[in-house]
What we know:
Subcellular location: Membrane
Structural class: mainly beta
CATH architecture: Sandwich
Radius of gyration: 19 Å
Domain C2: 1-128
Pfam families: C2 (PF00168)
Distance between the termini: 28 Å
Order of helices and strands: EHEEEEEH
GO molecular function, one term: AP-2 adaptor complex binding
Number of domains: 1
Number of strands: 6
Strand content: 35-45%
Helix content: 10-25%
Protein name: OTOF protein
Strand order of the largest sheet: 3-2-5-6
Amino acid sequence: SRNLLLPDGVPPERQWARFYVKIYRAEGLPRMNTSIMANVKKALIGENKDLVDPYVQVAFAGQKGKTSIQKSSYEPLWNEQIIFTEMFPPLCKRIKIQIRDSDKVNDVAIGTHFIDLRKISNEGDKGK
């Protein structure tokens, strides 16, 4: 029987697939002590931290994964991959990538980017 909850064009016999997101590096990160957040940090924990401790958080299809934290780095190098297991073709059409500053009080988002899966994959059965 046909699954009525699936949108038109999505085959009912969807296969499980693994999605690999490779995080290489970041550059040009802002110095956090020039921002309002730095003043908040100083008020809360008594330190004015110039350097960021960045990591990358990736969200896809209701799942989240993150890289390791690179201490005190404006040009962090990860070369790490995050793997998601999801049905193919995925109904979620974009991947959210966010670089964050790890902090004892509250992690702060430095930047957010979305990747549209339709722009990086071909139509058709293989989806490559």
